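QA checklist item 7 of 12: single-chain prediction sanity check.
[x] sequence parsed
[x] length recorded as 287
[x] structure emitted
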Amino acid sequence: MLVAAAINAALIAATVIGGILTGSLALLADAGHVLSDLGAIGLALVAAALAARSGGPRRTFGYQRSEVMAALLNGVTLVAIAVLIVVAAIDRLGDPPAVGGTGVLVLGVVGLAGNAAATWVLAGGQRQDLNLEAVLRHSVADALGSLGVIASGTVILATDWKPIDPLVSIAIAVLILASSIRLVREPLEVLMEAAPPGVDVEGVARAMCSVDGVRAVHELHVWSVTPGFEALAAHVVAAGGADRDLARREVEFVLRDRYGIEHTTLQMEEEADDDALLEVQTKPPPS
């Protein structure tokens, strides 16, 4: 992330100066997105540092969800940037200003090279980390935006068609918006404590019930504290006379082996004796 941050800082300086000198909204839109990348990297690094800290006696899971919060904030920021670019582009479509095509093309190539390098560096990280994935998607969208800038500069040089610059800006905004969908949806799923992606909760229940001595499972909850840290809590009903400790260990093994869920809280219960229960319920009260 630090390498990507250095590349992005250099790109921001180049695209902002170039956007002002050439009058290109596409370059300024790309600069705005790169600026959001730099902010995203800073936010991700702070979140990663927080996640490694102990939460003390009150925060029993520590600060691990700070990475999820950072990813969500990055996604919302991307949406806001996309909207601002579209508004500015629509305003320019009515009266497109003159744009320096040569400068736009050169800076587009420079931006593409820088964004490609940053993306390559980030892609070598731990992709299951939602925070890193958020920064990576920022970078990929930047690279696509640079391709749009190159297209804009090429068309301006070849035809002097001025509307291409705001139109490319809108295309960049659409790409930014598309890259933000997952960054908003997945952190919200974690915060709402939905089942982790790819985990069939009903299948988990059936697997637990397949263990010898287990009769039923209820109050089953499966969620992610943060991506890569899944947790499960459930009440497990064991057959009368069964070794409940053995059944619990077998259930834990199944959950770890089949689903990779290691953080479990299982409350073992013994199967009720329906006849005895009926006798208690129907016994007349003492006189």
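[x] summary fact logged: Strands lie at 214-226, 229-238, 263-270.
[ ] second reviewer sign-off
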